[in-house]
Specification:
Layout lengths: L1 E4 L4 H13 L3 E6 L4 E6 L7 H5 L4 E5 L19 E3 L2 E3 L3 E7 L6 H11 L6 E3 L19 H12 L2 E5 L3 H8 L4 E4 L7 H8 L5 E4 L6 H13 L5 E5 L17 H8 L4 E3 L1 H5 L2 H13 L4 E5 L17 H17 L3 E2 L1
Parallel strand pairs: 7-14, 7-15, 8-9, 9-10, 10-11, 11-12, 12-13
Antiparallel strand pairs: 1-3, 1-4, 2-3, 5-6
């Protein structure tokens, strides 16, 4: 249920909030540029529509049909924009997040950041934990990698994001990075979703390998329902019968999510394809389809990378990539930032 407020006084708003809590429901206040909306979360909230409709300060009350109530456009008509460092996602820009698949060493990470800074990259990605199919593959260097990521921020002025896999690691990672990432394999790790939902840091939520769009949005709902409204969705390809690419890039998910949700959507061309030669054309397609950003892997020496060696750009290749996607962004009225 959503309650749209008219010219309500602070006292009237508080009375509405108190009534919501009295009924055993959870209120979420959404301040738009034109209207203030209170989303009422809880079972059977719709049974009290008429009671809330009669309260002073209430303009209208309606039931939300979507199961993902806080992520739905029904609740929040205006598109949400989320700022991470100096990057803004969802406001007519194409935010670029770039960096190596994983933090392998201080030298490798800082060298990559040093090469990316002159290219205008303001948002650096690198994983300290690596969920791998094989237990014998590189698993990441763990929490000690946070010190290296802090050096990237302090030396090169970039915002930092990295993946969290365990509830126990959320707090120490949140204290260092600017943005948390939930990987595809953890999209339905509900305890982890709830924990990042209790943090104040933005969260990039990747779509699961075989998840439907509604399941993806319901995963976002777990984060939103805990109070964290800074969720950026990331399409990273889904598993199909096709074997020529690592995954099948579902470009249609980008406009579909924009029709269903107010949350910004970015695209991960590396994991969608697993092939360096497909990153550029699919990134162009994603921008044309309405993506709010790109999450791109860049390594100083991809051939020596401990993970995802075949799908990472060199800094030189990434520079050329940026030049080739700018005209596409301009054609759809957006700017690469």
């Amino acid at each position: 249920m959503i309650i749209v407020l008219g010219k309500a006084s602070e006292k009237q708003v508080q009375q509405i909030l108190d009534k919501i809590k009295e009924k055993g429901f959870k209120p979420h206040v959404i301040q738009g540029s034109q209207k203030t909306v209170i989303a009422v979360i809880g079972n059977n909230a719709a049974a009290f529509i008429e009671e809330f409709r009669q309260m002073p300060g209430v303009e209208s009350v309606a039931q939300v049909s979507a199961a993902f109530k806080l992520a739905s456009k029904e609740t929040h008509h205006e598109k949400t924009s989320i700022k991470v460092g100096s990057e803004v996602f969802g406001k007519g820009n194409i935010g670029i997040i770039a960096g190596p698949c994983g933090v392998e060493s201080e030298e490798q990470t800082l060298n990559t950041a040093k090469a990316l800074q002159p290219l205008g990259v303001k948002f650096f990605r690198a994983s300290i934990f690596k969920p791998r199919t094989s237990p014998y593959d590189f698993q990441g260097i763990g929490l000690k990698g946070l010190e290296i990521l802090e050096k990237v921020r302090s030396q090169y002025g970039m915002a930092i994001e990295t993946e969290v896999m365990d509830v126990r690691d959320v707090k120490p990672v949140s204290e260092v990075v600017d943005c948390l990432r939930i990987g595809a394999r953890n999209m339905q790790n509900f305890d982890l979703l709830k924990e990042v939902g209790r943090q104040e840091k933005p969260v990039i939520l990747k779509r699961g390998l075989s998840a439907t769009i509604k399941e993806w949005l319901m995963a976002a709902e777990y984060i939103l329902s805990e109070g964290n409204n800074k969720v950026i969705l990331c399409e990273r390809g889904i598993r199909t019968f096709e074997t020529e690419a690592r995954n099948t890039a579902d470009i249609s998910a980008i406009p579909l999510v924009h029709l269903m949700s107010h949350l910004p959507v970015i695209f991960d061309p590396n994991h969608s394809t697993g092939r360096k030669d497909l990153i550029l054309p699919l990134s162009k397609a994603a921008i044309a389809a309405g993506a709010d950003g790109l999450l791109v892997e860049v390594h100083e020496h991809p051939e020596k990378a401990l993970s995802d060696a075949k799908q990472q750009f060199t800094p030189k290749e990434f520079a050329q990539f940026l030049q080739e996607i700018r005209p596409i962004a301009k054609a759809v009225g957006k700017t690469i930032i």
